[in-house]
Every structure is written in structure tokens, then in C-alpha cells.
Specification:
Elements lengths: L6 E5 L4 H12 L3 E6 L2 H13 L4 E5 L5 H15 L4 E4 L15 H29 L2 E6 L12 H21 L4 E8 L6 H6 L6 H8 L10 H12 L10 E4 L6
Parallel strand pairs: 1-2, 1-4, 2-3, 4-5, 5-6, 6-7
Helix pairs in contact: 1-2, 1-8, 3-4, 4-5
């Protein structure tokens, strides 16, 4: 088990990429701090963590609120003694709008939820990692940060900032043996679809349209992202920092 007795904090852990990541870390022996605003979803994630043979706690967290994020990190330290891995995964998109038509509150949400949440996570986790003599941070960006689509410019820009923050943090924190990387997934049939398209389930026609320029001809599965995050967090990825790993089936080629 690659993460036996390590402590992994995963935000956005109630569903989608975050739930899969929490489960996969648990399968590899980690203790889990699962954070989200969705309490019912967190309960299911903790059930999956326990079914994988590990232990986890759920912390109801609004990652746009610094006090909530501080409490999340403190809960992990109080329960498990430390934080070894922080996965800043929580995020959401917005419905398609031309930039000049996007409501201001949606613009602000994109940066508070997708970008400032990384700042809060780093602010409160990094001192713990420095004290420990090292750690790993993995941020969830988006392939839209590199290959932006029309009508989701604010979302793409917020995720682009995550890529730049990842590289900057990697340089800042290397001296403390803290590695910082990010993943850039393609869209997935998760709760993201509701925030990005206003729907819960894709039709066959919509799925075909979204995947026609993806060489592997499908959307991202949550386990694709979870496995990439595990690799970047593991000793096998121990010489990687500042990396933005495309998990996109070749779309960005």
C-alpha cells in the first residue's frame, strides 16, 4: 500500500473526482479527511473509505471560506496527527455565457471556488507540512486551462490560474520538500455537468459531440483522475513538481 498511515485531505470529496480520489487513497492505506458542503455525499464517501479498509472523517467545508478551510486542516491534525497530502479538488463551472453577458456573481464564484480555495488550502496546510519535513499538494485544474472552449472563459481563466499557481508554488515550496502538481481533466459525467451544462445526464448525441475530437473517444472517468492524483502524490512521482498532467484522452494533442 503506497500510502499506509499517511493522511490525505481531499476537498470536493462528496462526489465525482473527489469521492473517487478519497476512495483510492483509502485503498492504498491512507487515512482520509473528506471535505465538502454536501453532507449526504460525504457520508457515502466515508462509507466507501471504510469499505476499502481505512478510516476517514468528514468535515463540512465551504472552501471559499478561510475559517472553514482552517477548521478542515485542524480536524485532520486533531484526528490523525498530521496532513501529508492535500488535494485541492473542489470546484465548479458555470453555464455557457459570452464573457460580456456572464453575471458578475458567477464570475466572482469561479475565482473564489476554483482558485482562491487553493490559496486557503495552501495557507493552512503548508505550515503543517513544513513542520513535518515535507508533503504533497495536488490541485485539480482543467484541460480548459490549456485549450479553452468558448462561452466558459471565466471558468477556463480560473483554472488557468490554478496551473500557474501550481508552478509558482512548486518553486516556492521545493526547499521544504513539498511537491506541488496539478491534473487537467477533460469533462466527466459527474455533478460538474449540472454546473457547466445545466443537465444531470448526457444524451447519446451530446456525448458523441463532446467526444468526437477526443482520440480515446470518451469522457473522463473519475477513477482516471483519482489514479493520476495518486501517482503524482506517490513515491513513484517523487521527482515531479510543477507538473500539470493532462487527463484528457488526448484531446489536447
Amino acid at each position: 500500500m503506497r500510502f499506509r498511515d499517511k493522511v490525505a485531505v481531499v476537498t470536493g470529496a462528496a462526489s465525482g473526482f473527489g469521492a473517487a480520489t478519497a476512495r483510492r487513497f483509502a485503498e492504498e492505506g491512507a487515512y482520509i479527511v473528506a471535505a465538502d458542503i454536501n453532507e449526504a455525499g460525504l457520508a457515502k464517501t466515508i462509507q466507501a473509505v471504510e469499505a476499502a479498509g481505512s478510516t476517514g472523517i468528514s468535515v463540512t467545508t465551504n472552501v471559499t471560506n478561510g475559517d472553514d478551510v482552517e477548521a478542515m486542516i485542524r480536524a485532520g491534525v486533531e484526528r490523525f496527527g498530521t496532513v501529508d497530502v492535500l488535494v485541492n479538488n473542489a470546484g465548479a463551472g458555470h453555464l455557457p455565457y459570452m464573457m460580456h453577458e456572464l453575471p458578475e456573481d458567477q464570475y466572482d464564484l469561479m475565482f473564489n471556488l476554483n482558485t482562491k480555495s487553493v490559496y486557503w488550502g495552501v495557507k493552512y496546510a503548508v505550515p503543517i507540512m513544513i513542520e513535518n519535513g515535507g508533503g504533497v499538494i495536488v490541485n485539480t485544474a482543467s484541460i480548459g486551462a490549456k485549450s479553452p472552449r468558448p462561452k466558459v472563459t471565466a471558468y477556463n481563466a480560473a483554472k488557468g490560474a490554478v496551473v500557474v499557481m501550481t508552478r509558482g508554488l512548486a518553486g516556492e515550496l521545493a526547499r521544504y520538500k513539498i511537491r506541488v502538481n496539478c491534473v487537467c481533466p477533460l469533462a466527466s459525467e459527474t455533478g460538474f455537468m449540472r454546473s457547466a451544462l445545466g443537465i444531470d445526464t448526457l444524451t447519446d448525441e451530446q456525448r458523441e459531440r463532446l467526444t468526437r475530437d477526443v482520440p480515446l473517444r470518451r469522457l473522463t472517468d473519475p477513477d482516471d483522475v483519482a489514479n493520476a492524483i495518486l501517482y503524482l502524490s506517490s513515491s513513484e512521482g517523487g521527482f515531479l513538481t510543477g507538473v500539470s498532467l493532462d487527463v484528457d484522452g488526448g484531446k489536447s494533442i
